[in-house]
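**Polypeptide and fold**
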Amino acid sequence: MNLPLLNPLSRLNKLLLTAAMAAVFASVSPALAGSVDIGSLDNLNIVRKVFSLIKSDYIKKDVKESDLLTGAINGMLESLNDPYSRYLEPDNFKDMQSDTSGEFEGVGIVISIKNKILTVVSPIDNTPAERAGIKSGDKIIKIDGEDADKMNLHDAVNRMRGRKGSKITLTIWRPDFSEPKDFILSRDVIPLKTVKSKIVNEKTGYVRISQFTETTAPDLEKELNDLEAQGIDALILDLRDNPGGLLTSAIDVARKFIDRGSIVTVKSRDGKTLNLSSYYRSHPLYPLIVLINKGSASSSEIVAGAIQDNKRGILIGGKSFGKGVIQTVIPMENNAGLILTTAWYFTPSGRSIHNVGIDPDITIDQTVLSSEEIAELYDTSSSGREAGPQNAATAENILLSAETLKKYDIKTGDIQLIKAIEILKGDRLT
């Protein structure tokens, strides 16, 4: 099949913005791309000659032509020094496409290569990885005892997937470990429901988006309508540990919060730009807080950046991941797929956040408190005494009563969410 020429900017609905194209899940949208007559490039004669010499003279006769082809393609992609561009053989490409059906079997983490180290971008909600305590930023040193630095991104993903109930050991390093630690996980069915919501305090709504897929925007619409039917007058949008996904999904989500204004600008390598904007009011402009952290990447950063630059809401948490490039998924004639970085994106104010990330308006470290520290904080606040110096930083962040936290099912250690609730509560009083 001959593939027609395509300007990537003319088909934005086919672009991906995954935080790590090696997600243990990945939302895929196929696209066509321009073709080049490789026969006209003289240097490729060298490639043909090497290919021929291997077939005719190499000591082993059983070298497969398909392996040589895949190796040549991977070699070209590796020379780009771009962790997001990669080649998927037919079976892997089929698996990737099937992930959009709603679930798959694995451990439930999104990974990337950062500084040449296999790194956890984020665990997926309610999965073996999250339940075992794997966190954003964790470095994966070994997979089932084999050094991860010898694996490419897709090999690592394939090793983590597997039949439900089967076990896998991930050797993890994080700064507060004295030495790498083994996490033994039992694979499970990983659901891909991306939106959930609840009321978190009086009339404050809470929506968590775990990734951006084809169903995220319509699912969000349903959740917002339900919250608004319950009379919310403020909202918290939780994008923490959201690794990204489809560009169109990010734009549709942002449009639900921004009535008018730029959302993102996409720029191709030839300098052509396309600005995506919001042009209608989808929902009331109630006070809005967005939670982000180092696991918020790509599409999450587009939404967070648009809200921040349009001064539509307040960003709370930690600096985001920093992925400001777009990939196109290109089906090949042999049923394989090529994922290629094809464009940059910029926030409404013109910022490139690639390898930089987005700074929140209010930085709050998600410090996990012990039961004793939490009890002391509540004892201090309820008695009216001033908090001691050792608790000064955390006491100002935990102002809700224990009864309120229990009533609305809020984790006592989730200081970022608690602070967001308190800010919105105070906003109503001003």
User: Anything to note?
Assistant: The radius of gyration is 24 Å. The first strand starts at residue 15 and ends at 18.
